[in-house]
Amino acid sequence: MVHALVPLTAALLILKIGVAALLPVFGDESYYIYWGLYPAGGYYDLPPMIGWWLSPLASVSLNPLWIRMFNLLASVLPAFTLYEWLQPHAGKDRALAASALFFFLPLPFLAVISFPDVPLLVFSFFSAYLFYRAKESRRPGLPYEAFFAGVFWGCAFLSKYFALFLLPVFFFAFVLDRGRRYRNIPAFVLGALPFVFQHVFWNRDHCWSNFVFNLITRQRVDEGTVDQTLGGFLANVLVVSAPVLLSGLLRPFERPEAGPIRERESGLRRFFFWLWAFPLLVFLSTAAVGRGQGLHWLLFLTPFFAAWVALRFPRERLRLAITASSILSGVLALGLMVSSVFPDRFLAPVLKKRWAFEYSVLTRPEDFVDEIRAVTPGVSAYFTGGYTLSSELEYLFRRAGHPVGFQVWGEGSRFGRTFDWTFEAETLEGKRIAILTPGFFFRENWERFFSKMEVNIRNFRGVEYMLVVGDGFRARDYREDVLQPAVRKFYPPFLPGRCPLLEESAR
Q: Taking the model in full, what pTM does it have?
């Protein structure tokens, strides 16, 4: 198996690097890069780790391959560690199979785009790995493995709240361990608490933004009927496990051999099973009450799923699963690369229907930046109507060597409200600003915020958009009449702690 996997792994790694280099930065990825460009203790929507993850990279270069460098390592490091983890328990062949299956599964293989589930995958995996080592260790001395398991879990918690789903599995694995070492618990807690405290204290001083968004604001979104959400959940599970199902998941398993080594393997297999099955049960229960999920939610479960399959499958069917995964990932990677190189031929029929303006800009970013700069001399800041487009354009302008700030014009939506915290009215008072509006325009409402306003209807690659240039921006009036009502709408005033945005609104 080793001789066959080496060239296959090398070929697929080259394809993975090619996807990371050629796929343009767009959508929510540009929003998270915006977080990295403005490092802070926290952000509006989610815990801050993805911003911290991207910040050191964004401070050096915004080249797509460079900005996704940590994402490439996010699949390589767990793959190597899976081998080291399983080899003493299940032998070299199954350890190598687990490592290869995880690396070749389409979801982690194509996770080169920067989003919070990528650091969640890395830190959740290493937390589980160190927790299991601490559980199995019988060495005297300080329980440093349990402590660092807590540290990695804290980093996973600051990536996404799904890290909480690991704790019941850890707890029952500890309780059911006959030789449990009680000092592992305080060591784990000691490692994790600083990260939890940082998050809670930041939220206390920033309107409880993350908790309000995830527990209140986000839940107001209609995500479809129960049939639709359950169907989406099942589709996500099928996509992740498709190569394994193709190899014969529904056929009888081989019977495990007896003996002390197989007993240890069986315990490890149960540990892996519950690490991916318990979060799936939680996702299933939320789908059953009409809450939708994204396919990326399952990314952090893939190393545990691959390890369980490697320990449970007959060797021949395991080889088939690895082969199916590698073929599917290779085909998808080639498709993405070809589509990125020839977007007008492959992407235009799909993207132009809904994202015509964004598509025209992303396929000719340098031309668009040059055009906007040529017709907006002396502009101090740019605005668009949404957080995604503002993030995309700030990324494109900065990559072109023009680090001008972008903001969201108007009330905005319930999503992406990090711009509430980066808007500084005092620095823009009386300045010249420009507003890019591909989809909406209310001139009567806008003129009062400028001493002079000029409206231009422009065309870029066959797509019309409006460019509004305003002189003498009345930033304080804009903040009082537009932003502060939005703040009162999205940030509840009755919570304890501090909310600087509401304090500004009350002045």
A: 0.91
